[in-house]
Design goal:
The chain is of the alpha/beta class. It has nine helices and seven strands, in the order βαβαβαβαβααβαααβ.
């Protein structure tokens, strides 16, 4: 049996989530990544097992309360209690507020905020029993600044940061740390398809004059997962090239 610490990374099939999962695996964690489909889980498993054979992947849909409870119960039974939980899974349903439907609002809040609640609810007690752990929630600069067309996403991410601070206060005495990493504009397949004029406008607003890379976020997560951050909890680390310095 592996003596590596277990790390769970939700939404690990691509982009930031994939980079986080691979970074933690390379740092010596036994990583289980999640996706919402069998195909996605297979892709994660293949990538992670290329790093180490004891890494794995599962199907997890954090928008579905029943499936989440069952999947995480199975995770605990098969792999044990995570030392690190990275809540990265999320969705967008962008629309101007006056056109935003109840379904668009509810879907984003259900996944990006309530989904994190479900994961933490299932894993907090086992982590408390082992008296050690780090929960890292992936927020966004949009939770601080807001953004036109993303009222639902901004509300969810701002709520996530408040949730993080509250949970951190409740379980700090049990040696469980809870923090956020808030990415700015990161180069992914979603930003690659933006019109060139929009990319230029974004770059003009970033003092660092470049989009972030997924590795920039993975590095911040790795710090919060490791021993060098043992006295940090309830914080949001902004990784945005200086776009927001609040």
């Amino acid at each position: 049996m592996s003596d590596k610490q277990l790390a769970l990374v939700t939404g690990a099939s691509r982009g930031i989530g994939r980079a986080i999962a691979e970074r933690l695996a390379n740092d010596g964690f036994k990583v289980v990544g999640t996706a919402t489909s069998d195909a996605g889980a297979d892709s994660i498993r293949s990538a992670l097992q290329a790093i180490s054979a004891d890494n794995n992947a599962i199907v997890l849909n954090i928008a579905d309360a029943e499936q989440t409870a069952e999947a995480l119960k199975a995770l605990l039974a098969e792999f044990g209690t995570p030392a690190v939980v990275v809540n990265n899974a999320g969705i967008t349903r962008d629309n101007l507020f006056l056109r935003m439907s109840d379904d668009e609002w509810n879907a984003v809040l259900n996944t990006n905020l309530s989904g994190v609640f479900r994961v933490c609810k299932a894993l907090a007690k086992p982590m408390i029993k082992q008296k050690a752990g780090s929960i890292i929630n992936i927020s966004s600069i949009i939770g601080t600044t807001g953004n036109a067309g993303q009222a639902n996403y901004a509300a969810a991410k701002a709520g996530l940061e408040g949730f993080t601070r509250s949970l951190a206060q409740e379980i700090a005495s049990r040696n469980i740390r809870v923090n956020c990493v808030a990415p700015g504009f990161i180069q992914t397949d979603m930003t690659d398809i933006l019109p060139e004029a929009q990319k230029e406008a974004i770059l003009a607003s970033i003092p660092g004059k470049r989009l972030g890379q997924v590795e920039d976020i993975a590095g911040a997560v790795a710090f919060l997962a490791g021993k060098d951050s043992q006295y940090i909890t309830g914080q949001t680390i902004h990784v945005n090239g200086g776009m927001n310095m609040g």
